[in-house]
Amino acid sequence: MRRTPDVVGLGRAFVCYVAVRTSSSHSLPTLALALIPRAVALNLALGALAAALKLPVYLDSVGTIFVAVLAGPVAGMLTGAVSNAVLGILYSPQLFAFIPVAVVIGALAGWAARLGAFRSVVGAAIAGVAIGLAAALTSVPIVIHLFGGLTPSGTGIITIALRMVFGMSLTHAAQVAALSTDVIDKPLSCVLVALLITRLPARLTERLRTSPA
Amino acid sequence: MSALEHWNPLTPLAAATFLVVAAYAAPQPAGAIASFAVALGGAWVLGVGRRVSALALAVALPTSALLLTMDALVPGAPGIATHILALGPVRLDVTAVRVAMLIAAQLGAAIAAMGWVVVGVAPRRLTRALAARGLPAWAAYVLVASLEAVPEARRHAVEVMDAQRCRGLNTGGGIVGRVRALLPLAGPLSVSLVSESEERALALDARGFRPRSRRGTLTPIADPRAERVTRALLWWSSAAVLAWRIAVAWRGSAS
Amino acid sequence: MTGALSPEPVVSLRLDRIQYGAHTALHDVVLDVRPGEIVGVAGHVGAGKTTLALAAAGLLGGAVPARITGTVRFSARGWPPASFVFASPWTQLTELGGTVEEEVAVGPENQGLTSGIIRARVDGAMGAAGASPLATRVPRTLSGGEMQRVALASALALDAPLVVLDEPTAQLDPSSARRIAASIRALAASGRAIILVEQNLDLLAELASRVVVLADGAPLATGDPRALLERWPPLDARLGTTTAVAERNAPTYRAPLVVTDDAPGLVIEGLVAGYAGRDVLLGVDTVVPRGAVCAWLGENGAGKTTLARAVVGLVPTHAGTMRVAGAVLDGLPVELRARLVGLVFQDPSRQLFARRVIDEAAFGPRALGESRTGALAMAREALAIVGLEGLHQVNPGDLVPQLQRRLAIAAAMAARPPLLILDEPTAGQDAAGRAWIVRALEQQRSRGAGVVITHDLTFAGRVCDFAVTIARGRVSLSRSDVPFGAAD
C-alpha cells in the first residue's frame, strides 16, 4: 500500500467529535444519540454472551459504561435509564424500579472516565469497585421500600441466609447481598470496557488519552 | 386485539400512574388492595388480562413467599409478636404476614397497572402520542431506536460468536479460557457499535433530523375530549393522593 | 446540454480542500450539476468519492467533522438540500418507523409537515422507488434489494431537487441492482439532478450523462462516460474499466484444469441441512478438486451461504457427509473444523477486534495452538498475499471496509486451511482490490482448494475453474466453464 492516510476510513473522525463535543457541552449531538440504542443493544448482547459462556457475572452494564466513557456522564445516564426502560417494556415492568441504579452506574462511569480511570486496567478496576458499591447502595432502598427487602432472585436468598447465619438486620443483609454480586460484576465490566476502548480506532484513543475531560 | 389500541395511549398511561400512586400512597392496606383489584380486573376487561396477570403474579407471589420464608426462619424480637404459626424454630407472626400480603398487593397493583401500557400499547404509538404533547425528537428517537435495536442485539452476538468459532476460538473449557474468550467476542460488538452509530447518525442527518425540533406525523393519534377530561381527572387525583401522603408524613415527623 | 441554454445548476461545488484532521481527502473540485443530469463519480477505493458525495449533499461539517475550504451552493432553499442514499442497506434506516411507510415518512416528518402532505410525499416516493408493495412490511425483515428501494423512497420523500447516491448497488445482487438503476433513470427523466457514485463501471457507463473520475483525492478527468471508462489501458489501473472492454483486451478464460490428484479438496455427498425444522439444503452433491477454485452461483436465498455455513459446522446437518482434504467433517465441532476450512463472512466487521492488523491475522493460528512467533510469521505471510504488508501496526477499525475484507481473507488464510471459502468477496472492491483477491485465491490453489460465493461473474470467470449453481437447496447446474462477462 502506498500511504496510510489513503486507506484510513473517514468515518472514524466522527468518534473524536462525540468525545470532544459531549464532554465540553451538555447538548447531545446526533452521533451521541445514535450511540445510545447501540449501547442498549450491547448491554443485552453481552448479557447473552455472559450466559452463553456460563460466566458467573451479568455484564449487562457494559454498554452503559462504554457510552459513559466515550460520550460523558449525561449520555451514560441516558443509556442506563433507556436500557432499563426497554427491558421493563420487553420483559417485566418491575425493572422500571431499578432505573435509578442504571442511571447511577452511567453517571459514575462517566465521571470516573473524566478523572482518567479508564486509561488503565487498574484504574478501571478501582472505578468498577466504586461503581459496584454505589449500584448496590442505590438498589437497596428500592428493594426495601418496594419489595419489602427481598427480590425473588439469588440476592434474595443470600439476604435470608445472611440474616439467619449472622443475625444481620434486614437493611444490612440486603446491602451485603447486593454488594456480593455488584462488586464482582462491575469491576469486570469496567476492565472489559477499558480493554475494548483501547481496541477502538486509533484516532479516538489518542483523543481520549490527550484530553483529561 | 386490545381495547387499548383505540384509545389515546396517554389515557392508559395516566390511569396506570394513578393506580401506582394509589397502591403506594393511599391509606393502606385499602389503597393497595383496591388498586390491585382494579388493575387486574381492568386488564381482563381491556383484553390483556392473561399476560398482565402473568407479569404481576410472577413478581408478587415469589416475593411474598420469600418474605414469609424469611420471617419464619429469622427470629424476630421476642415477646411482642403474636404468632400464628410455631413449629420449633419456625415462627410466623401476624404482622409479618400482613406486611408480606401488603407488599404482594402493592407490587401486583403496580405491575398490573403498568402492564396495561406495556402489554396493551405499542411503544411507537405511545412515543408518538408523547411527541404530540411536546416530547423532544431526541427523546423519542432514543426510546424507539433502542427498542428496535434490541432484537438485533442477540443476532449480532450470535454472528460474532459464529465468526470467531470459525477462526478456532474455543468458547467452552475452563473459567479462565471462557473469560479470555470475552475479548474476541465483545471486541467486534463494541467496534461495530461505534461504526454503526456513525452510519446511523449520518443517516439521521441526511433525513433532516434535528434533536430539538418538533416533528410532524404521518398518522396523527386522535385525542377525543372525553379522554382529555378523564386524563386531567386522573392526573389531579394522583397529585392529590401524593399531596395527602406528604402532608401526613410531614405531620408525623413534626409531632 | 450547452452552457447558454442550461438551467441554473441545482448544486454548485467549488471545493479547494476538504480535510479530516490533518488528512486531505479531496481537493480542487469544480462541479455543477443541473436538473435532469446524472453525474457519475468513479475512482479507486480511497479516491475521495464518498467525501465528494457527502459534500454535494451538504452533509459535511454536521455529523462529519470535516474542514471545508471552498463553497457548496444549492439552488433550493429547503433542508435537507439533497436526498441521499448510502451503500449499506440496513444502517441507513432511522429506526423511527415501525413499518416501511413509517420509515419513508421520517424525512417529511422531520421537516415538520402536516399529515396530508406527508402522506402524499410518502406515496409518491414509494411509487418512484418501486417500494409501494412493501408499505406495511417491517423494515428489518426486508432483503438487501428491498431495503435499498425503501432507502431510495425514504430519501425521495424529502422532495429535494438533488439526489445523491453513494454506491447504492454495491451490496445488491444483479437483479436488485437493475431495479435501482431503472429508478435512477426515471428520476433523472423527471427532472431531478443526480450524483451517482459507483464502483460498478458498467452501470456508470450506461446511466451517466457525464462522469468525474477521481484519483488520490482530486479529479483526474471529467467527461463522457464511455470515453473515460471504456478505455484500454484504463485511465487508472486501480479503477479498471468496464467488463466488456476488459474482456476484449485481457480475456479471462482460464486454461482447463487438469485434475492430477485423487484426494479432492472438498467432497459433499447427499447433504441435508437447515435450521429448526426447516431444511434449506435438500441433498447437495458437489466436489471441488484439489488445486481448483469453484464458484457457487445462485439467486439470493438459494442456499449458497447456508451451504458454506454447513461446511464449517454452523448449520445442523441431518444427512449426508462432507470431507475436506480427505478428513471427515461430520461431527467435528466448529472450532476444530477451523483447521480445515477458512470461511470469510460477508460482513468482516463481525470478526475484527484486535488492536493491530498483524494481531488480527495472527488470531486464527494462535487459537489453533501455534506459538506466538509462529503465528506472527504466518500472519505476515498471509497479509503479504492480500497486499496489506505495509499496514501491520494499523488498527483494523481504521481501515475502509474494502481493506477490512482483505484483512479478513488474510486472517482466514493465515492458518493455512486446505479449504478457503469467500462469501461475496468483491462487493465494493475496485480493480486493484479485486486483483489482490484473485491473487489470494491463486495462492490458495497451491494449498488446497477454494470456493467463491459471488454474483460477480466477471470475477468468477477470472479466478474460478468451474461453477455450480445452487437453486432451491440443491446443486442444479454444474459447469466446467463459467459464462464470463455474460449478463447472468
Largest binding interface between chains = A-B, 64 and 67 residues
The secondary-structure element order of chain B is HHHEEHHHHHH
Poorly predicted segments of chain B = none
Based on secondary structure, the structural category of chain A is mainly alpha
Q: Mind describing the biggest β-sheet of chain A?
A: none
Counted beta strands of chain A: 0
Helix-residue proportion of chain A: over 70%
Shape of chain A: globular
The CA-CA distance between the termini of chain B, in Å, is: 53 Å
Please tell me the overall pLDDT of chain A.
Answer: 82
Shape of chain B: flat
- Assembly state here? heterotrimer
Structural class of chain B: mainly alpha
Which spans of chain A of ≥5 residues are poorly predicted at pLDDT below 50?
1-27, 205-213
* Count of DSSP-assigned helices of chain A: 10
Helix content of chain B: over 70%
Radius of gyration of chain A: 18 Å
Q: Helical region count of chain B?
A: 9
Task: Give the secondary structure arrangement, pairings included.
The complex is a heterotrimer of chains A (213), B (255) and C (488).
Chain A: H1 4-7, H2 12-24, H3 30-52, H4 62-71, H5 73-90, H6 99-114, H7 121-147, H8 154-166, H9 170-199, H10 202-210
Chain B: H1 10-25, H2 30-45, H3 49-73, E1 83-87, E2 90-93, H4 94-120, H5 123-132, H6 137-166, H7 175-180, H8 182-206, H9 225-254
Antiparallel strand pairs in B: 1-2
Helix pairs in contact in B: 1-2, 1-4, 1-9, 2-3, 2-4, 3-4, 5-6, 6-8
Chain C: E1 11-20, E2 23-33, E3 38-43, H1 49-56, E4 67-74, E5 82-85, H2 100-110, H3 115-128, H4 144-156, E6 162-166, H5 174-189, E7 193-197, H6 201-207, E8 210-215, E9 218-223, H7 225-229, H8 243-249, E10 266-275, E11 278-288, E12 293-297, H9 304-312, E13 317-324, E14 327-328, H10 334-337, E15 341-344, H11 357-367, H12 372-385, H13 401-414, E16 419-423, H14 431-447, E17 449-453, H15 457-463, E18 466-471, E19 474-479
Parallel strand pairs in C: 3-7, 3-8, 5-6, 6-7, 12-17, 12-18, 15-16, 16-17
Antiparallel strand pairs in C: 1-2, 1-4, 8-9, 10-11, 10-13, 13-14, 18-19
